[in-house]
Amino acid sequence: MKNLAFWLKFSIFNFFVVAVLGVLMRYKIAYSLPIIDQKFTQEAHSHFAFYGWITQIIYVLIIQYLSKFVHGNQLKKYDILLITNAIASYVMIPAFLYNGYFWLSIAASTVALLVTFVFFFFLIKDLKNVKDLSKSWFLAGFFFAVVSSVGVFGLSYMMMSGNMTQELYLGATYYYLHFQYNGFFMFSCIGLLINSLKNINAEISENENQSIFWLMFFGCLTGVGLSLLWMKLPMWFFVLIVIATLAQTFGAVKLYLLVKRNWKYLILNFSPLQRFVLLYVGLAFFAKIALQLGSNIPAVSQFAFGFRNIVIAYLHLILLMCVSVFLVNQLLATNVFKMTKPVLNGLKILITGIFLNELVLGIMGIFSIKYISVPYSPQILLLVSIMMLLGLLMMFFSLRKKEI
């Protein structure tokens, strides 16, 4: 991939744009900013975070992975998809900021979604004769991305037609988020992790890989019910959800044991900071698994869905502390850029800011049980958001391509 350095650096800039929108939202909560609509800004922030940052960098990293199996000329079609996704993502920002869901924002979102469909089609075709441990993870990730689109189309229809109920709106939203977070994002990240381990000659058998994969796949496919626990569900469906959650938990434990067994190879090939980031992400991942397991208890589920701060903390735990930090680490691990002190300091500031963000949101969630507000929490969260923004800015301006 000839322009890999450009797309990787561009992805960091996109993450910075996500942080800018986040700072705007936090500023408006802490102070006053009449010029922007909070709901519209939130929609611009979430859509660009999904498509402009996470989906874009997953595309880039998977294209780099494909370059080992596919001839350079065959990769050119993916450049068109990267450009199309980037344009659609940047159209979303002013469109959502201007008027939320309307024809332009929906059109841009649809284009970005269709890019995922086409990417999936190309991926199936190009990996057809490839035998590799990461193949099933990437294909499953895109399968779940396509499945999640049902929620998007449902939301778009409800928004355009005005035929909406609170239950349908929440159902479609949680359905989409589940298959994006637990499907597309998680499976893509695990595929990248397996590939990284394989590249340093870690010991991973095909049977072990497939065992983890099918446990996680079944857990994700049927675990969508976890997002619907606030609805009245039949007992058989609830039992299926519990089984799915246990399957994902067993899969996560097996993945942990796999990494632990191969830690000696990580010590030899990963820098101390890279290993720390892997532990950091692993902690977030297992916190997510534990919370997911606990949500099967009806009282815990009602508590989680009943308090907005808890929902926001959980979503940030996955999106920022788990997925985004892992992808930034993978981006730097491509060995395309010089690992200078400013780059590493920028990464340290970023992961510290993300941890503090999760800590404050978690404290707010716990205190909200008793309807107690944390003093100066809006101002603290604003400062933490600025900290993350500055870390990304430092990284972006410090990234220098290695001389060949």
Q: What's the number of helices?
A: 14
SS elements, strand count: 0
Structural shape: globular
Q: What is the average of the pLDDT values?
A: 88
Query: What fraction, in percent, of the residue positions are helical?
Result: over 70%
Which class best fits the helix and strand makeup?
mainly alpha
Instruction: Tell me the major beta sheet.
Output: none
Key words describing this protein structure:
single chain; 404 residues; mainly alpha; globular
Architecture overview:
The chain has 404 residues and is an all-alpha fold. It has a domain at 271-404. The protein is 80% helix and 0% strand. The longest helix is centred in the middle third of the chain and has 34 residues, at 166-199. The protein is globular and about 50 Å long. The model has no long low-confidence stretch (mean pLDDT 88).
Topology:
Layout: H1 4-30, H2 38-66, H3 76-99, H4 103-126, H5 135-161, H6 166-199, H7 206-222, H8 235-261, H9 263-269, H10 272-294, H11 298-306, H12 308-333, H13 341-367, H14 377-398
Compact description:
The protein is an all-alpha fold and 404 residues long. Helix content is 80%, strand content 0%.
